[in-house]
Amino acid sequence: MSFEIQTENMDTEGKEIAQKETPKFAEYSPDLEEIKEKASEKEFENLIVIGNGGSITSFRAYLYAFLPEIDKDVRLVTTMDPDYLNRLSRELDEEDTLVVPISKSGETVGVIEALMFFMKKDYEVFPVTSDNDGALRSIVEEEGLDWVEHPDIGGRFTGAVETALVPAVLAGMDVDEIRSGAESMYGKLEPGKENAARDLAEKLFEAEENGYTDILTPFYSTRMFGFYPLFVQLMHETVCKEGEGQTVYGDLGPEYQHHTNQRMFGGEENIVPLFFRTETHEHAEIEVPEGLRDIEVRGKKLEGLERNTYSQALKSEYIGVKHAVSEEERPNATLTLEELSYSSAGELVAFMQYLAVYSAWFRGVNPFNQPDVEKSKDIGFEERFR
User: Fold this and answer.
1) Which residues contact 77 (CB under 8 A, 6 or more apart)?
2) Which 3-state string (H, E, C) describes 240-272?
3) What distance lies between CA 205 and its chain's CA centroid?
4) Does pLDDT of 211 surpass 90?
5) 131-145 pLDDT per residue, tens
């Protein structure tokens, strides 16, 4: 594995789960050659990806991780906010922009609304949707659009299939490596094996049983922070059913320390911190100008900061919180990404998927449905036609 997981104060009782079948997302194989061939036919400088939830959360994770290497101007649209849509249309010329709406059902009305905005302005459109009778598929037929089929897999589990890989290859990412990393991780985490995802899922479950109902996820890496919305969706939508499941929230570290540490240490004792960090930051040394070296901060001279790199300074912030939590004998876990590559990103997405599935299995709930999300969607849809 390209990452390491450490836990403290998280003993388990060895809870058993009934033997489960390998999930569909771990068995399905996308046609990478078709994806790459279709992408190669598109000429554009700017990429707009429209989607909600699982249609976009995995791609966002890849985008944030590899943004410095991407030579396309990529924008994400998860809203029909007219201010945002108009700003994009002012900044991105339609002649140089490709719009990729993604929806499994093809019935996500917000995606359709945002798509209508760009179609009216004659942007080129390249959808990803199911081969069904949904509205997006009907638009494909009516307009004669080139498109890619969305597999029959729930959106939040599509980080290694067409749903995420189409926009990834359009952005210039190495989808072969992403897929290879995911496949490798799927093999390690199969049901029936002792594995890291099952182990962490069990420990988080035991923590919830002991009153730790919240998971705080500080990300000590801007490039890893795109995995935060994906992790929240996977855990909430997969696990939180029938009164079960933990609330997941987080922020960038060390910024969250200046507000949520007060909650964690001073509020109700129900938070398990799950730290995300990496050892692969870009190298940059702290340098203090000569005339400022004798200035003191908290009783130490600024010149003393030069013994560290910026990466070491960031790690020091993480260590401070982790040690404080451990000294109070509270449960905590750390996931450290030891290399940042397309392969390791695929591994991490696959790990999060399986972590959510095992978490659901430990609680006896169905990982693959989302029975409680439709009511508000239905009300919002009808409100449009009042």
Assistant:
1) 48, 49, 50, 51, 84, 85, 88, 114
2) CCCCCCCEEEEEECCHHHHCHHHHHHHCCCCEE
3) 21
4) yes
5) 999 999 999 999 999
